[in-house]
Structures are given as structure tokens and as C-alpha cells.
Amino acid sequence: MHFKLAFIGYGTVAQGLTEIILEKKELLEKKYNFSASVVAISDFKKGSVYDENGLDMEKILDFVKNGKKIDEYPSGIKGYDSLKTIKDTGADTIVEVTYTDVKTGEPAITHIKAALEAGKNVVSTNKGPVVKQAIDLLKLAKEKNVQYNFEGVVLAGTPAINLVEYTLAGNQINGFKGILNGTTNYILTKMEEGMTYENALTKAQELGYAEADPTGDVEGLDALGKVVILTNVVLGKNIGWQDVKRKGITKISKKDIEDAKLQGMRWKLIGSAEIQKDGSVKASVKPVKLPMDDPLAGVNKATNALTFYTDELGPVTIVGPGAGKRETGFSLLIDLLNINRKLSCK
Ligand code: HSE
Questions:
Q1: Beta partners for 282?
Q2: Which atom of ligand 1 sits closest to the CA of residue 184?
Q3: CATH number at residue 184
Q4: What does the alpha-carbon distance between residue 152 and residue 335 come to, in Å, rounded to a whole number?
Q5: By percentage, how much of the chain surpasses pLDDT 70?
Q6: How far is the CA of 275 from the centre of ligand 1 (A)?
């Protein structure tokens, strides 16, 4: 199938997806019968452009790398805002990758609703809408007979949501436990190696793991959002922000880390949820001192890991990147290929 994409937001992740699609063009066509053109981009800071015949994405990437605005693209219609880009362009699939606000979910919720209402598929790495309204948005997509896919909201392109949806299908998932935030895992690893908390945080920001406001990482809010998402989407429950107990890593001192090391243990920020006998859910984000033989204890730096507790297989653990330009961009390709597969089967 050929997809006509519109990017809402054109930051690092959007550029990561663009690079992958350009570099893997032949493979994607040959192996999956998938091709895509980008007909529109609207970015709050970089400007917008629409050309129904498709944009030259090599040129767009070049523009962005050189700090030029998308507005400076030599042809096409300029000045469309995000909603006009969603509704009034020929795009059939909207790539929603604007700034994540996990507290309100906006403006991404408005974008995604508008796209689904207009009968367009949505692929997105935006956590906010999934934290706030996953169930309603998925229902709306179903009503409109379109897809809303968001593999990248947890563990970036390391398959977590699709793993449960497809590969582990048929299992009852009773809970999960994971290292869901790369920044804090990086900081804890580096502190164990002797770096100060402040220097490790600065380094995590330089490497692009941390959120725009890293408070969300170190206080456990980012991990909390992912616990809410996994509980609702994977465990099939309906919890909100307030239902998850939270403690970040800011109170973990160098001494705590050294003491743990002497005991053959390691601190990790763990997000978890477990279905209780009465059907309720117990969910939390907190630093946990793990013995070295716990599979999560050996997961270091910015790497994420997630164990699902399944009825047929027992614990199943996946380990991989949870952030990064290409790693998160790739999650959008997983989503697009899934839509391609579904539509090809129709
Ligand atoms: N700030 C997040 C992290 C990015 O450090 O894991 C991915 O959600």
C-alpha cells in the first residue's frame, strides 16, 4: 500500500522515522509492499508546508539539520496550522509527534481526535493522550474504522504493546514490572560508577534521553505515565494518574548506592502493576533494591526492560532501548507496517 503521511510536529522522532523510511525504501517496498510519501508537515516552531504531490524529504531533513525553517521549502502551500493540516490535506495517515504533556494530554488529544473524526489513521509516540484517554480514543478509531497505533509510548521501538497484542495473544497477563525510564536508569548506573547525580543528569540530557523538563523523569512521572498506559492497554483495566503510588530517585544518595553494592544489590526505578484477587490493580513507581540475580538488575545505562507475568509462560522479559531518535522513530514504522498489514488483508 502507499501511505500519504502528514507530520504534526517535526522534532527528533519525526526526523528519525523520515531517515528510516528513506534509507529502507527498497526493503519496505519489496518485503512488505509498503511505500510512503509525506504530503504535509506542521510544526509549532519550524512552520508548515503542504504539497499534495509529496515533499522532497531529503531536502526537508537537510533544511532542519541546517536550522532552516520548513516555511523556507521552495514550493507548496505554507501557513497551515496543525488542525488544518490534519483536516484539509490529502494525508490518509497522521503522524502525531508533538510535545508530550502527560498531565493534560494536550494539544495531542485534540489532534488525534480530529484525525480519527476525519477518518484518518494515526500513529503516535505521544504518551499524554494514551495516559489520559487511551480507551476513548481506541473506541473512536474503531467507530470510524481507522487505526490508532502507539507502540512507541512504552520502550520506544522495543516491542511491548505489540508483543502482548500479537505474539503473546491468548495469554492472561496478570501484571508487569519494568525499568520504564532510561534517564533514571542511566543516572543510577553512572552514580554506581562514581559520577555525581548532577553530572549524570546533565549527561542524560545531552544524550537526549531526558524529557524537556527532566523533573518528569527523576520524580518518576514519566514511568508513572507508562504504568498507567500498560495497565489500561495491556491489563485491560481503567486506572488514572492518581491510582499509582509514586516515588522518584531524587532521594537516593551515593551512599545508598554504595551500600547496596556492598550487599551485592542494585537500585532500580521500578514501575509495576499487579491484578489483585478482587480484580483491582495495585500499581506503583518506586526505587527498589534488587538482588543481582534479578533479570532487571543487569539492565544498565539507558536501556529499558519489562517483564510480563503471563498465565501460560510465566514471566516473559523484553530488554531494549526505550528512547532515542531512530529507536523511537522505528516504533512509528512498526505502527505503519501494522496498518499496512491490516489494510492489505481486507
Ligand atoms: N525521558 C524518557 C526516558 C524518554 O528517559 O526514558 C522515553 O519516554
A1: 274
A2: 5
A3: 3.30.360.10
A4: 9
A5: 100
A6: 25
